[in-house]
């Protein structure tokens, strides 16, 4: 079965490149764990979805002036070529070999730690409600930097055209995730002693144009996340 990983669809989120660099370094290493992953899965990794935007110094858009992570429903081959091509690759991989996971790597400018967004609004008796939450739970158990409480499962307004939502809803893959890595740091800043020592500061609400706002203000960020 196949695993598809994409990164840097938003040119300014350079921390996504650090993650994919580490992923590739690990997958190509001689470690026993990496060998198991290579033996059991076919890996499709796109390290930079928006190279034109990176070269031009854009923060979110490509040369066409559009946010490529809002074009997944009907991508133009001429204007949104990387999205058009990756969507076809995902469809083909799912049809031919089976697709077990799609991961889209991003950077977050406000919340701390590493966390995920997924499409997990299933009824409590639906097995998909359990399976979609398994990967973030495992990350939270294995990585002190990963903040499971910061993960979100609903699809907010304006997210319907993103990669993870289209792959989940249109292509029928439950295990599709946006992985966010903070620009700000691992742990949330602490309040001063006069305000209650040890109390963590709530993360500010995301702006309406932020890719990581899930239709609601961010909840208090929890340092450590593990």
Compose a concise summary of this entry.
This is Peptidase M14 domain-containing protein. The protein is α/β, with parallel strands linked by helices.
Description:
By secondary structure, the protein is α/β, with parallel strands linked by helices. It has a single domain, classed as Aminopeptidase (3-Layer(aba) Sandwich). The protein has 6 helices and 5 strands, in the order βααβααββααβ. The chain has helices at residues 15-27, 32-40, 51-56, 81-96, 127-142, 163-169, and strands spanning 2-7, 42-46, 99-108, 114-118, 176-182. A 5-stranded mixed β-sheet has the order 2-1-3-5-4, with helices on both faces. The radius of gyration is 18 Å and the shape is globular. The two termini are 29 Å apart. The model is unreliable at 191-226 (pLDDT under 50).
Keywords summarizing the entry:
globular, alpha/beta, disordered C terminus, 5-stranded mixed beta sheet, 226 residues, Aminopeptidase
Helix content: 25-40%
Low-confidence residue ranges: 191-226
User: Please, how many domains?
Assistant: 1
Average pLDDT metric: 85
Number of helices: 6
Q: What is the CATH architecture term?
A: 3-Layer(aba) Sandwich
Largest sheet: 5 strands, mixed
CATH top level class name: Alpha Beta
Give the name of the CATH superfamily: Zn peptidases
Secondary-structure element order, N to C: EHHEHHEEHHE
The total beta strand count reads: 5
By secondary-structure content and strand pairing, the structural class works out as: alpha/beta
User: Taking strands numbered 1, 2, ... along the chain, how are they ordered across the largest sheet?
Assistant: 2-1-3-5-4
For the CA atoms, what is the radius of gyration? 18 Å
Shape: globular
Kindly identify the CATH topology. Answer: Aminopeptidase
């Amino acid at each position: 079965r196949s695993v598809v990983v994409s990164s840097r669809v938003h040119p300014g989120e350079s921390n996504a490149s650090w993650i994919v660099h580490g992923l590739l370094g690990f997958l190509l290493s001689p470690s026993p764990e990496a060998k198991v992953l290579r033996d059991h899965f076919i890996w499709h990794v796109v390290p930079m979805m928006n190279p034109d935007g990176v070269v031009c110094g854009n923060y979110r858009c490509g040369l066409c002036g559009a946010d490529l992570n809002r074009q997944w429903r009907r991508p133009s081959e001429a204007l949104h070529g990387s999205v058009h091509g990756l969507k076809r690759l995902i469809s083909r991989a799912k049809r031919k070999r089976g697709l077990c996971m799609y991961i889209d790597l991003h950077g977050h400018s406000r919340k701390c730690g590493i966390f995920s967004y997924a499409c997990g609004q299933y009824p409590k008796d639906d097995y998909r409600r359990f399976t979609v939450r398994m990967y973030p739970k495992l990350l939270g158990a294995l990585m002190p930097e990963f903040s499971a409480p910061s993960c979100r499962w609903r699809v907010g307004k304006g997210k319907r055209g993103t990669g993870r939502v289209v792959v989940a809803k249109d292509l029928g893959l439950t295990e599709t995730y946006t992985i966010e890595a903070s620009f700000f740091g691992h742990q949330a800043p602490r309040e001063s002693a006069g305000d209650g020592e040890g109390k963590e500061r709530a993360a500010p609400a995301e702006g309406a144009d932020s890719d990581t706002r899930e239709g609601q203000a961010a909840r208090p960020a929890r340092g450590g996340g593990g």
